[in-house]
Amino acid sequence: MEPDILNAFTQPAALNQFLAENVIAQGEKKKLIKPTSSNNPKLEELKLVLTDWINSTLKEEHIVVRSLEEDLYDGLVLHHLLENLASLKLDVDKIALTEKKQRQKLSVILEAVAKCLQLEESQLKWSVESIFTKDLLSTLHLLVAIAKHFKPSLAMPPNVQVETITIENTSRGLKTANAVEYITENKENLEAQSKGDAFDELFSRAPDKLDAVKKVFLQFVNQHVGKLGLNVKDVESEFADGVILLLLIGQLEGYFLNLRHFFLTPASTTEMLHNVNLALDLMTDGGLLNFSVNSEDIVNGDLKATMRILYSLYSKYKTKET
Q1: Single pTM value for the model
Q2: If you average pLDDT over residues 2-24, what whole number do you get?
Q3: What is the residue-averaged pLDDT of the chain?
Q4: 3-class secondary structure for the chain?
Q5: How far is CA 142 from CA 72, 78, 151, 159, in A?
Q6: Confidence at residue 4, expressed as pLDDT on a 0 to 100 scale
Q7: Under a CB-based contact definition with an 8 Å cutoff, are residues 176 and 5 in contact?
Q8: What is the CB neighbour count within 10 angstroms for residue 209?
Q9: Which residues pair with residue 180 across a beta bridge?
Q10: For helices 198-205 and 210-225, what crossing angle results, to 10°?
């Protein structure tokens, strides 16, 4: 067992209790909030805000939520909440008594959520399994996404972050990785973006230098994707489908992307968005992206958005040897 998993818990008893409550099968991977973050005041505030919002929304239906983990896992509350907020009727039983029917119901509900929020599978930070097994991190991500879409005026505390530990049960034992994850938006990053950045300055005050910057990025990109027999000539158009971006990330990060996970020759905007969203997720997971990006901007050939992404990669890997 790696020492990181021991460091995640202040006492051996807490570790034993954690492993007893979270059985991780061979080959399985789970990401959970560290116990050290469980009593985070801002996390508790967020849970209270979301609980009050749900109870207020469903007051006329006489539904009262006391625990986000315990009261939402079977889909009953989520069913009522989504029908209320989205004014739609879901083809599921009001009450599902068996585990099989609860999972089926939850699957229909979460599919409807993704459709309402216009999210692709690669963008989802929750799943039927994680919600059903009462995973707090997934439940919070789900509720925050629903609240932001249907009740943008809801005063959720910004910058709510938690320490997470990802545990994978491998043939050699438990493998762990620590990270810090934001549940609500990083207000400082949002404010910084609203004030503008170097690319805003470049486009507005020094457009004559734009071609020189594009040339630097093209040299950087071709230095790495050239090994794959590729030659990129245009920053504005050749990153729109996400393919070059994915291949570049793979080269820089040193891993092979399974061709089943993306569209090598995307034939529609939906497939292009899938590729770009996957690339942004990989960059976020790798700590390469610390600001919000609209994937549609990349697909639509927004030069400024594309150059921001390339700069994030360039700034870390400009000295990487091919």
Answers
A1: 0.58
A2: 49
A3: 82
A4: CCHHHHHCCCCHHHHHHHHHHCCCCCCCEEEEECHHHCCCHHHHHHHHHHHHHHHHHCHHHCCCCCCHHHHHCCCHHHHHHHHHHHCCCCCCCCCCCCHHHHHHHHHHHHHHHHHHHCCCHHHCCCCHHHHHCCCHHHHHHHHHHHHHHHCCCCCCCCCCEEEEEEEEEECCEEEEEEEEEECCCCHHHHHHHHCCCHHHHHHHHCHHHHHHHHHHHHHHHHHHHHHHCCCCCCCCCCCCCCHHHHHHHHHHHCCCCCHHHCCCCCCCHHHHHHHHHHHHHHHHHCCCCCCCCCHHHHHCCCHHHHHHHHHHHHHHHCCCCC
A5: 11, 10, 14, 17
A6: 44
A7: yes
A8: 11
A9: 163
A10: 130
Q: Report the C-alpha gap between 79 and 89 in whole angstroms.
A: 9
CB < 8 Å & 24+ apart, contacts of 97-100: none
Distance from C-alpha of 278 to C-alpha of 133, rounded to nearest angstrom = 25
Given the structure tokens 């300055």, which residue do they identify?
A: 201
Residue 29 confidence class, pLDDT cut points 50, 70, 90: confident
Contact 203, 304 (CB under 8 A): yes
Q: Of 96, 127, 133, 102, give the one whose Cα is nearest residue 114.
A: 127
Question: Hey, CA dihedral for 302, 303, 304, 309, is it positive or negative?
Answer: positive
